[in-house]
C-alpha cells in the first residue's frame, strides 16, 4: 500500500493519466436502424450453417492428421580423403586492382610509402603510378609532400629566441 502512495508522490502525472483512463467512459454503440436490423438477421440466418460447419469438428480430417507420420533423416555427405585443405591460416592480401581507379585506401597508401622507402631505385614515381593506376603527377606529389616519417638531426631543430622565465 505504501508503494502506491509513494508512486503517486513521485510520478503524479503518470498516476493522473492512469486514473483518467480508468474513469473515462466507454463509447456507447449507436442504435441500429430497423431496416438494417432486419437485413442483419436475414444474413445471419442464411449463413448460420456455414458458421456451424466451420466450428464443428471434422473427425475424418482429424483421423488423417493423427495417422500422418513424417520421418526425416540427415543426408550422408561423401567424405573424400584427398579433399582440399587450407594451406595456411593467414588472410589473403587485398588486391590493388579491385579498388576504385584513381583512389587509394590507407593500407595502399602505407604500402606505397613502404615500397618507395625500401627500394627507391626500383619503385620510382612512374612505377608506383602504373602499379596503383594513378597519374605520375599525383604520385610524385605524394612522395614529395607526404611521408610516413622524416628524420631530423638534433642540430637542425629550431631554438626559441628568448628563454622563457617562470615566475617564482
TrEMBL record:
<dbReference type="GO" id="GO:0005739">
    <property type="term" value="C:mitochondrion"/>
</dbReference>
<feature type="compositionally biased region" description="Basic and acidic residues">
    <location>
        <begin position="35"/>
        <end position="57"/>
    </location>
</feature>
<dbReference type="Pfam" id="PF06784">
    <property type="entry name" value="UPF0240"/>
</dbReference>
<feature type="region of interest" description="Disordered">
    <location>
        <begin position="1"/>
        <end position="57"/>
    </location>
</feature>
<dbReference type="GO" id="GO:0032981">
    <property type="term" value="P:mitochondrial respiratory chain complex I assembly"/>
</dbReference>
<feature type="compositionally biased region" description="Basic and acidic residues">
    <location>
        <begin position="11"/>
        <end position="24"/>
    </location>
</feature>
<dbReference type="InterPro" id="IPR009622">
    <property type="entry name" value="NDUFAF4"/>
</dbReference>
<feature type="compositionally biased region" description="Basic and acidic residues">
    <location>
        <begin position="82"/>
        <end position="91"/>
    </location>
</feature>
<feature type="region of interest" description="Disordered">
    <location>
        <begin position="72"/>
        <end position="104"/>
    </location>
</feature>
<protein>
    <recommendedName>
        <fullName>NADH dehydrogenase [ubiquinone] 1 alpha subcomplex assembly factor 4</fullName>
    </recommendedName>
</protein>
Amino acid at each position: 500500500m505504501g508503494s502506491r502512495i509513494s508512486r503517486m508522490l513521485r510520478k503524479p502525472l503518470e498516476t493522473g493519466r492512469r486514473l483518467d483512463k480508468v474513469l473515462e467512459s466507454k463509447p456507447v454503440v449507436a442504435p441500429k436502424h430497423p431496416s438494417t436490423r432486419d437485413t442483419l438477421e436475414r444474413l445471419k440466418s442464411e449463413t448460420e450453417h456455414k458458421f456451424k460447419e466451420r466450428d464443428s469438428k471434422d473427425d475424418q480430417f482429424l483421423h488423417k492428421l493423427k495417422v500422418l507420420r513424417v520421418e526425416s533423416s540427415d543426408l550422408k555427405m561423401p567424405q573424400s580423403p584427398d579433399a582440399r585443405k587450407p594451406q595456411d591460416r593467414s588472410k589473403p592480401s587485398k588486391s590493388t586492382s579491385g579498388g576504385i581507379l584513381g583512389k587509394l585506401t590507407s593500407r595502399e597508401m602505407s604500402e606505397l610509402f613502404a615500397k618507395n622507402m625500401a627500394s627507391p631505385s626500383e619503385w620510382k614515381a612512374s612505377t608506383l603510378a602504373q602499379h596503383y593506376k594513378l597519374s605520375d603527377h599525383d604520385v610524385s606529389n605524394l612522395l614529395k609532400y607526404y611521408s610516413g616519417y622524416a628524420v631530423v638531426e638534433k642540430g637542425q631543430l629550431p631554438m626559441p629566441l628568448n628563454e622563457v622565465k617562470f615566475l617564482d
